[in-house]
């Protein structure tokens, strides 16, 4: 029997936001591989083996999936949101590049946190935008600062993933400091926490009002561009922009 690997995005949390393609792969799987809270979202069934592991062991997880597929198993590696956004798809290709068997691999997209959050708020990402992972696990903080400053100067709207963890609470305070140097105080920000889960909360503030503790690891933070504005309860960014 030929094994395969599907790297699947489970979306931001709600069952309704899991794509039919991902549900079909899960239904055919013999093995689920992933970070503990993501594997916990998969319903147990007869013949399905769940391999839950701690965070920060992405490469081990990818190697396990490659080994299982080489033995003929049908493996789904689960990520939250989209598997290509700060998640397992790149880790799997790193393992392949490092000499793993080139297996039958499919990447199944999911709804990433910034898009689910943007939809709740209105259309804050309706013009050019970028996504920045604020975790310095895999890159130096100086690079985060560099990209952040240039994105702000380029007047991109932004989405920040992994904004603030208990182990590096000072990083996000520094991010706010840089934004205050580069953007006007009335710049709109959205703190969207646990979007599409029962714990969901959405907070819309100006840059002047933003405080570091408004973000945690279940929050994605959106920053508008200089034209982003409110209309009724909504926040949106116009589709057009003038000359530089
Ligand atoms: N692959 C995921 C991102 C993984 S990084 C995706 O595409 O969404 C983990 C970060 O994603 C969290 O720290 C948080 O910033 C964001 N995130 C994931 N799910 C979220 C949700 N339901 N609501 C708000 N932010 C979320």
Class from secondary-structure proportions: alpha/beta
> Approximately what portion of the residues adopt beta-strand conformation?
25-35%
CATH topology of the largest domain: Methyltransferase, Cobalt-precorrin-4 Transmethylase, Domain 2
Calculate the mean pLDDT score and round it: 95
In the residues, how many domains can be counted? 2
Helix content: 25-40%
CATH architecture of the largest domain: 2-Layer Sandwich
Model regions low in confidence, pLDDT < 50 over at least 5 residues: none
Elements, N to C (H/E): EHEHEHEHEHEEHEHEEEEE
Number of discrete helical segments = 7
Largest sheet: 5 strands, parallel
- Can you identify the CATH superfamily of the largest domain? Tetrapyrrole methylase, C-terminal domain
Query: How would you sum up the global shape?
Result: elongated
SSE layout and pairing:
Blueprint (H helix, E strand, L loop, with lengths): L3 E6 L10 H9 L2 E5 H4 L9 E5 L4 H13 L3 E6 L8 H10 L7 E4 L4 H9 E2 L5 E5 L7 H13 L3 E5 L8 H13 L5 E6 L7 E6 L12 E5 L5 E3 L2 E3 L8
Parallel strand pairs: 1-4, 1-5, 2-3, 2-4, 6-13, 7-8
Antiparallel strand pairs: 8-11, 9-10, 9-11, 12-13
Helix pairs in contact: 3-4, 6-7
This protein binds S-adenosyl-L-homocysteine (SAH).
Describe the fold and architecture.
With 244 residues, the chain is an alpha/beta fold. The chain has two domains: 4-111, Cobalt-precorrin-4 Transmethylase, domain 1 (3-Layer(aba) Sandwich); 114-236, Methyltransferase, Cobalt-precorrin-4 Transmethylase, Domain 2 (2-Layer Sandwich), CATH 3.30.950.10. It has seven helices and 13 strands. β12 (229-231) and β13 form a beta hairpin. α3 (58-70) packs across α4 (88-97) and α6 (141-153) packs parallel to α7 (170-182). The protein is elongated, with a radius of gyration of 19 Å. The mean pLDDT is 95. The site of S-adenosyl-L-homocysteine (SAH) has 25 residues, from α5, β9 and β11. The site of S-adenosyl-L-homocysteine has 25 residues, from α5, β9 and β11.
